[in-house]
Design a protein that fits this description.
The chain has 18 helices and 14 strands. The strands form three sheets. A six-stranded parallel beta sheet has the order 3-2-1-4-5-6, sandwiched between helices. A six-stranded parallel beta sheet has the order 11-10-9-12-13-14. A two-stranded parallel ribbon has the order 7-8. The chain folds into two domains: 196 residues, NAD(P)-binding Rossmann-like Domain (Rossmann fold), CATH 3.40.50.720; 218 residues, 3-Layer(aba) Sandwich (Rossmann fold), CATH 3.40.50. The N and C termini lie far apart (57 Å). The longest helix is centred in the middle third of the chain and has 32 residues. By secondary structure, the chain is α/β, with parallel strands linked by helices.
């Protein structure tokens, strides 16, 4: 199949590379000239484990190419995927669909023969209807169908998620479109990946519902962590105790500083706004959004208490800046709110992240960046683990204790055992543990 991927960001690039690896011919389109130039040289604009090798292999074998010429890519395609950004709109939190609709207008001008136009971007219910209206208004003569095919990729594990998915959700209103997309995903169907065909609006809502439910699990266990601290219980054991119930499951029950990233924050806000528009309020999701925002700043309070109630003039060392490991994504990372709150309390902040510091420099000010964890900790009044990178899981605690000014470890990801750390003379503060 000949595919065009409009947008060469995280979703578009990973999806395009994986489709090409299945044997399809894929053209990735992007308006950013420097991004296209970098991709043509084999350099990915994002960090994702395994992606550079995947791009290089499919570039070399001629199945994957890049262009700024949307019209040429669309004209030759059997299916066109819209994978542009849908950030939160300022003011109301709803998804900004301007890039999606602009892409639809350009696609309309270039359609040649029956083409399936697929929204892969995360979009509110009814977006596919508007995309269809835009194309139909611009090209009444065009032969096309609009489908929804939401992505369910975890940053840091996106290639595995694409090639070995839990499910593939496709929303269609046209039988011909269903046949085309069944062929696009045929390599996965042969691997027994479940392909779930449903209505277009249902597919659009399924993506938001999935992310909102996972965000709710995270927020729930974070509130249980606060209760555990108050009553002297252990949230990790609580999480294990409830996660062993198959109806609940163990995933997304890890207490921490709150969720961040490119999906959960904006998608929960967008779902809340969509529900309000349809007068069907999602009060649970509203609470999740509010609690999560408050939690990020509250983590600075945990550092404040661990340092005796004052941070004025003290140096706080942060390990981990990205919202999760194995990505350079800083979008809505808890570290951003934590840094701002620490600085408001008068602290000096020094930080280290294995991958994310280049992105972090664009978003924070008055932060000193270190070259490794030990340089970060040198002379600091407290060490705070914010992101659970593998590189932080087996640190030389004795060495850290010797280089820190005060042996204070605030572990916001619970990657160390309190008793072991305290045995080395540290004051230890975790999340939901005593």
């Amino acid at each position: 199949m000949r595919l065009a991927m409009i947008g060469s960001g995280y979703v578009g690039l990973v999806s395009g590379a994986c489709f090409a690896d299945f044997g399809h011919t894929v053209v990735c389109v992007d308006k950013d000239e420097s991004r296209i130039a970098a991709l043509e040289k084999g350099k990915s604009p994002i960090y994702e484990p395994g992606l550079d090798d995947l791009l290089a292999r499919n570039n070399r074998e001629g199945r994957l190419s890049y262009t700024r010429d949307l019209a040429a890519a669309v004209k030759e395609a059997d299916a066109v995927f819209i994978a542009v950004g849908t950030p939160s709109r300022r003011g109301d939190g709803q998804a900004d669909l301007s890039y999606v609709y602009a892409a639809a207008e350009e696609i309309a001008k270039a359609l040649d023969g029956f083409t399936v136009v697929v929204t892969k971007s995360t979009v509110p219910v009814g977006t596919g209807d508007e995309v269809e209206r835009i194309i139909r208004a611009a090209r009444p003569d065009a032969e096309f169908a609009v489908a929804s095919n939401p992505e369910f990729l975890r940053e840091g594990a996106a290639i595995t998620d694409f090639k070995r998915p839990d499910r593939i959700v496709i929303g269609v209103e046209d039988e011909h479109a269903r046949e085309v997309l069944a062929e696009v995903y045929r390599p996965l169907f042969l691997n027994a990946a479940p392909i779930f065909f449903t209505g277009r609006r249902t597919a659009e809502l399924t993506k938001y519902a999935a992310n909102a439910f996972l965000a709710t699990k995270i927020t729930f266990i974070n509130e249980m962590a606060d209760l555990c601290e108050a009553v002297g219980a252990d949230v990790q054991d609580v999480a294990k105790g409830i996660g062993l119930d198959n109806r609940i499951g163990a995933k997304f029950l890890h207490a921490g500083p709150g969720y961040g990233g490119s999906c959960f924050p904006k998608d929960t806000r967008a779902l809340v706004e969509t529900a309000r528009q349809y007068e069907a309020r999602t009060r649970i999701v509203e609470a999740v959004v509010n609690v999560n925002e408050e939690r990020k700043t509250a983590m600075a309070g945990k550092v404040l208490r661990a340092c005796g109630g004052s941070l004025d003039g003290k140096t706080i060392a942060l390990l981990g800046l990205t919202f999760k490991p194995n990505t350079d994504d800083m979008r809505e990372a808890p570290s951003l709110a934590i840094i701002a709150a620490l600085q408001e309390h008068g602290a000096k902040v020094r930080a280290f992240d294995p991958i994310g510091m280049e992105q972090a420099r664009k978003l924070v000010s008055s932060v000193e960046f270190a070259n490794d964890p030990y340089e970060c900790a040198a002379g600091a009044d407290a060490l705070v683990i914010v992101t659970e990178w593998d590189a932080f899981r087996a640190l030389d605690l004795k060495r850290l204790g010797e280089t820190l000014k005060s042996r204070v470890l605030v572990d916001l990801r619970n990657i160390y055992r309190p008793e072991e750390v305290r045995r080395l003379g540290f004051e230890y503060a975790g999340v939901g543990v005593s």
